[in-house]
Design brief:
CATH architecture of the largest domain: 3-Layer(aba) Sandwich
Number of helices: 11
Helix content: 40-55%
Structural class: alpha/beta
CATH class of the largest domain: Alpha Beta
């Protein structure tokens, strides 16, 4: 039987602490028979530490700056991980990944962003469950802070406080969305061309308006809202569109499961929307679902 996804976590507060967590993990990876070279996704400073101490063994480790991996949204990081595993992992997804999230930049810049990345860590346990990948998430307590680290422990098995990912995602979604502003614009045409025009009128540059409008149209199709009304508000890249569907979307993985091919297939509209937008909030309720897309 292929072993399940091994999702570990380490915290550190000094350079020596980082090395104390990273070196045994990489040694384990390099000793794994028949496994592809491990990857270390970390800050430039920590990558330099690894190069210095690993010496010639550094040539056997793929070193990636974490700002090249953790770009955009949490869904973008899911796509990055899935793509890397497809290209570099061994049979069954066998590979070791040392992963240092960017918490001193965008990922920890607001409670909303922090919630998104805690969700990413939780859902990784489901998304990558069939794979024999071993991941060590390294958290710098100097930048992540105790509240974030306490929360993320709940998304990692073996920490003693691990929560079921579905339950944790539901807890995150229990926080109500802020109500739309009183001047939100009512949209009665959800076709991409119509939404693009309205988004451009709100200052979104043409290329961005095209992406956002396509995301809105694809999400509407995915949740069964082929027609009807939606709300649009915001200016420039901060455009927000809220869809209201009679279909309940209560799958926490909706829009996070990587498609088999790069071609957009029916039903994958939420995946596309999550790749394009900074945030896609899905709230199921008694009468259906609310899907809110924020471009940036």
């Amino acid at each position: 039987m292929t072993p399940a996804f091994d999702h570990r976590m380490a915290t550190y507060g000094t350079d020596d602490g980082f090395l104390a967590a990273a070196l045994p993990f990489l040694a384990e990876a390099l000793a794994a028979p028949g496994e592809p070279p491990p990857a270390a996704i970390a800050s430039p400073h920590n990558l330099a530490l690894l190069r210095d101490i690993l010496g010639t063994d550094a040539e056997r480790v793929t070193l990636i700056e974490h700002t090249d991996w953790y770009t955009g949204s949490a869904a973008n990081a899911v796509a990055q991980g899935a793509g890397y595993l497809a290209a570099h992992a061994g049979p069954g997804g066998r590979i070791h990944l040392l992963m240092e999230p960017v918490w001193n930049g965008r990922a920890g810049s607001s409670p909303r962003e922090t919630t998104e990345w805690i969700r990413y860590e939780a859902l990784a346990n489901l998304l990558f469950a069939p794979l024999a990948t071993t991941a060590l998430c390294a958290y710098d307590s100097r930048t992540a802070g105790p509240a974030i680290i306490d929360a993320v422990r709940r998304a990692h098995p073996g920490t003693g406080v691990y929560e079921d990912p579905v339950r944790l995602a539901a807890e995150l979604d229990a926080v109500p969305l802020a109500p739309p502003p009183p001047d939100a614009e009512l949209l009665t045409d959800l076709a991409a061309d119509a939404v693009r025009v309205r988004a451009q009128d709100r200052g979104l540059p043409p290329a961005d308006a095209e992406l956002f409008a396509t995301a809105v149209a694809e999400a509407a199709e995915a949740v069964g809202q082929r027609s009807g009304t939606a709300l649009l508000w915001g200016q420039d890249t901060h455009c927000v569109c809220e869809l209201r569907s009679e279909r309940r979307v209560d799958d926490p993985l909706a829009g996070f499961v990587p498609p088999v091919t790069t071609d957009l297939e029916p039903g994958q509209g939420l995946w596309y929307a999550r790749q394009v937008c900074a945030y896609v909030d899905v709230r199921a309720h008694r009468d259906g679902s609310t899907v809110r897309l924020r471009y940036a």
